[in-house]
Amino acid sequence: MEIIARPKGGNVDRMAEKVFMKSIEILGGLKKLVEYRNLTWLPSLAEAAYVIVLRNEALKTYSEIARELGITEATAKNIATADEMKVLEYVRGGLEERPKEHVAGGIAKLAYKALKESGELDVDEVSLNDEMTEILEIAWAVQVLSKIKGLDFPAGKEQLGERLAGILVKVRGGEYRIEELLERIDYPVNGPSELLHKLKMAASS
Q1: Which region holds residue 88: left if phi is over 0, alpha if psi is between -120 and 50, else beta?
Q2: pLDDT, tens digit, 9 for 90 and up, residues 133-148
Q3: What PANTHER family does the record point to (predicted)?
Q4: CB 157 within 8 A of CB 182
Q5: pLDDT per residue as tens digits for the range 29-56
Q6: Which of 135, 128, 105 is nearest to 15 (CA)?
Q7: 51, 50, 61: which is closest to 5 by C-alpha?
Q8: Would you list the domain boundaries of the chain?
Q9: Peptide bond preceding 188: is omega within 30 degrees of 0, i.e. cis?
């Protein structure tokens, strides 16, 4: 008898936000990331949070996740199959060398399991702390990742402009309309991480 897994339902965006914020908590909090200059981890954590939620809650295949997030199928699989305990040992300083595991994927898996065990993942409330994200200028990155969900990459200016209109990008104390930044970057854009990097560079230049 064939058993067909069905999606469990729920708001994927909100669940991914919760996994993202729990991941930061596991890493010691936003202040810790600032102290160790690890804010570059945030886009990878956001991407991994979406992969884990789409895999476990929406029951998407690796190829479906890859298409939806604009990443490779191998990346989606590496995130979803990362050994979370080995990653945790590395983050806590128990390993001298960086493991082959996808670090952001391992952290996101730990965050997802913690939220599931506590029952917090299914609660329909926004757990993203707006004040904290605004202070550290990461809210725009989370908004961008949310808006481009399902977009096929490589993507051009017109496609991105339609999805991202109205977002304000805050970088190093400056505030920029994303439409202005999209005029400054090179195309095509090959994936979410590249898009965030190009936008940040455009705002910093």
Answers
A1: alpha
A2: 554 566 777 778 778 8
A3: BACTERIO-OPSIN ACTIVATOR, TRANSCRIPTION REGULATOR, ENCODED NEXT TO RECA SUPERFAMILY ATPASE-RELATED
A4: yes
A5: 877 776 666 666 788 888 899 999 999 9
A6: 128
A7: 61
A8: 12-118, 128-204
A9: yes
| DSSP bridge partners of 73 | none
Q: How large is the angle between the packed helices 103-118 and 41-56, nearest 10 degrees?
A: 50
- CA distances 11 to 15, 48, 58, 192, Å, are 6, 16, 10, 20
- CA 176, CA 154: separation in Å to the nearest integer? 24
- What residues of the chain score a pLDDT lower than 70? 1-10, 34-40, 123-138, 172-173
Query: Of 84, 11, 91, nearest to 53 (Cα)?
Result: 11
Name residues whose C-beta falls within 8 Å of residue 21's C-beta, 6 or more positions apart in sequence: 127, 128, 129
Contact assessment for residue 189 and residue 195, using Cβ atoms and an 8 Å cutoff: yes
Count of other CB atoms within 10 angstroms of residue 7: 11
Contact criterion met (CB below 8 Å) for 87 and 99: yes
Rounded to 10 degrees, the C-alpha dihedral 17/19/21/26 comes to -170
